[in-house]
Amino acid sequence: MPADLLLVNGRVRTMDPANSVVSAVAIRMGRVVYAGDDAGAKGAAAPGSPVIDLAGRTAAPGLNDAHAHPMSVGYALLDLDLSPERNASIADLQVLVRNAVAGKPAGTWILGRGYDDARLHEGRHPTRADLDVIAPDHPVVLIRMCHHIGAANSAALRLAGVTRDTADPDDGLFDRDEQGEPTGVLREGALTAVRAAMPEPDEDAMMAALEAGGREFLRQGVTSTVEAGIRDPRELRAYQRLREAERLPVRTYLMMMLDETLDDLVSLGIRTGFGDAWVRIGPAKLFSDGSIGGRTARMHAPYEGQPDNVGLWMMPPEELKAKVRRAHNAGFQVGIHAIGDAAIDLVLDAYEEAQVATPRPDPRHRIEHCSIVDDRILGRIRDLGVVPIPGTSFLRHFRDAYVNNLGEWRIGQAYGMRSFARFGITAAASSDAPVVPVNALASIQTMVTRHDILGRPCNPAEALPLDDALRAYTVNGAFASREEGIKGTLRPGMLGDVTVFETDLFAVAPDDLATVQVDYTVTGGEVLYER
Is the pTM of this model over 0.85? Predict the structure, then answer.
């Protein structure tokens, strides 16, 4: 519920160029009414407002994660944690699976998320042989960090109807051994085909996952997210039901999967922007390519050591262009997953052709992830007014896979926030959680240092000042969701969404930013998280 709140005695970064650093903010009925000195804030605050003494701590507009999967974050909290920080080898993953199947009836599905083959001791993906020895009677699927590759055991393949005679889907691959048998490693559409055999959660389970995932975002200071893929009406109803019950933890901009939802939305006259400050319909979403870790992102030049592999298209280019035109003509913002440089060029072609055919003022189409770019591509993005949504902590977690698959020469400008700024492009920060952890400060640290999780540099020339990194997580996120008129800055009239860190961020060594914790997360003047 909209509430009153007074924050004083701090170092508040308002992100308002006309009034950038103040000591206090007053919020009345969920909206900022004053940002300035302590005395002015006290005079503007409602009588009896709760008070937070910031005691010199940094406060900022509520953080905005421009591409994430809050519902999946909630599910992931219940699944096996395969993260490389906890699991160094396939043997460690086997222990997790063995413990998970113990006591569970045969046929119970086991799902784990977050392994990284580049950081496993064996330097490869787990296979069905690795999983069959510990779980012969339980279907098991382990998903790589990127969520574009997985490993399944024989029981899971059997339930999905996958045999040596199963053809590869157009948008994916079943890895096979020398005899042509599936190894259990699934890429892109092949992973989707196997996961489709799993029992689907019901609407109540979706709501529970949203609440659990949303609480994790609040713990990290995030007040707004973009849900990067609604394809099932039950998912939309889960958001609506939580909104009606005032139990939705974070504000959400919903990316609607084009193939599954566009016709229904258009028939009802709904397009991007429909909704309110809590739940709003966002872009129509498509996938153009895969991932760098899976060597399925579509590149102009081949992958290292594979001269015939330039990645995959998720659909024929002309089909993608036709779908973009449909959504553009219907008044939608469009957001397309594009990681490889060839995929990004295709997406820009599609946006340009749609705008030439049907001119619209500021369609503000997006490129989700927008990973491998150069100055030529950056010039096209600027000229077309497209908004990139880089995964700003991907290099922190995936640097080894990127170097192994693309070579150092191609990743210098990957997620290059300084290059985006150099071209005058507004790029919004994102986590893509649960692909990587929600931790917004890890993302901010990566933008500021360009170091990976082991402290190794990746083209430090792309590093940003801390204030600009905060801007990417606040103002730029609001711009990407066409909501810069209501959030992203702390000035009178804006939503009273505030993140309070445990210390003065600007006094912290850049390599320590990821360890800083959030003390308060405030939404509409109400404290929704307190450490």
Answer: yes
